[in-house]
Amino acid sequence: MFEFVVGSPLNIALILGVVIVTSAMLIWVERRLLGVWQERLGPNRVGPWGLGQVVADMLKIFTKEDWIPPFADKLSFVVAPPIIMVVLLLSFAAVPIAPGVGIIDLNIGLLWVLAMASMGTYSVMLGGLASNNKYALLGSLRAAAQMVSYEVFMGISILGVVMLAGSFNLRDIVEAQSDGWFIVPQFLGFMIFMIAGLAESHRLPFDLPEAEQEIVAGFHTEYSGMKFGMFFVGEYIGVLLTSGLLAVLFFGGWQAPFGLTIGNEILSGVIWFSAKALFFVCFFILLRAAIPRPRYDQLMSYGWLVLLPLSLLNLLITGAIVLYQAGG
Amino acid sequence: MLKVLNDQLKVFRTQAVSLWLVLKYTFRKKDTVEYPDVQPYMFPRWRGRIILSRDPDGEERCVACNLCAVACPVDCIALQKTEDENGRWYPEFFRINFSRCIMCGLCEEACPTNAIQLTPDFEMAEYQRQNMVWEKEHLLINGTGKYHDYNFYRVAGKSIGGKDKGEARNELPPVDVRSLLP
Fold this sequence. Notes:
The complex is a heterodimer.
Chain A: H1 9-37, H2 52-63, H3 74-92, H4 109-131, H5 134-157, H6 159-165, H7 170-176, H8 187-200, H9 212-215, H10 225-250, H11 265-290, H12 296-327
Chain B: H1 2-24, E1 50-52, H2 67-71, E2 77-83, E3 89-97, H3 106-110, E4 116-118, E5 133-134, H4 136-139, H5 152-155
């Protein structure tokens, strides 16, 4: 029961706990890093290096008034926030962290992750619609259109990886990268998947559903207290998920670069996977610090007119090369 | 086709450049001053908390002329003139309501005796609004403030106890107008 086998209770409890705690800690990480890149310090007063800020924020968000506006549609208003957290945590189940560390070993792992992550759209849409507020409606409208259109080539962009690995199983994909990461043959796919992942987790360059400067707070305008907190943490779990997927699909998952293994297989795998995922988390925060938000029509036309043809092109070329090598 | 590709490469390049520019800020010196731990340098002419200074002899400089109260745009200064046995004028009470004061410094400019002065102290927050009203005993300091030598009664022509007309600095004795008669 308490050994590192995929799906053991110890694994499930550890992964669930670590994912939720890390996504809460990301609030602090993001604020400190944004501070670094904006020539200021960020929160550093509560506890060592300001780490207590997370606890303080949590206490605040738990004790805040949890208000349901009288004009809102009660049921969907209450149901919407947990959806995003639940589906993103569910999609984490298929992410392989190290050999023997993971929750489930699905042979359609990648499809499971994509399917669950796209369910998050319901949360954003329902939340905005149920709020019965013009800003929230605009936000959820944008969220639905953006996520549906970016979903399309998010799937197509990683088909190249699937073709090279010959499997939808995320563990097999990691194993297939033991003699070379997929970032080299699939650089285009990596770029497209990263952009789509950003749009999927509506992080800053693509945070049009909640664009503060235009539509107050978008779909979560009417939310407060822990319901808002769930949207907030859901967004960070989305960041973690996208970073983890980038590490698994293109950067060899738990495989150590240059044979730099640390300790035994499991420890080394966990450390390298976390390091790679954390690198992408930091990169996402850098994107937030550096790149302004595009206009809505720019976002849509960029998706449909540039990224979709590019991902199709990537698919075509990769397929041709795979066929050539197989037939050659 | 080539133009589209070129445009996309340009988009990619400009975004990469801005990412690099922001990344370079990692090693910049931070602008933040951690205020309660690190005190900022306050310029000597900063317009902060108002004080009443004394002349080099240690007497109150204020002669209760009311010019500061008149000049004050928010009407936060209140005072009442009185006189001591030597004929020196001084305020019976002098009250500044700092919850109204806007630190404009017009009272300092209006003061003919350099009595009222603004200082670089800005930490004046109070938990109770009543504590924002400062009386003369709170305002009066023991030093001369920014002007160390100025002593109004030693340069002014007004006669007070111990100093008659014509005995002030740079002052000639009063002219006996009758001696000028032809």
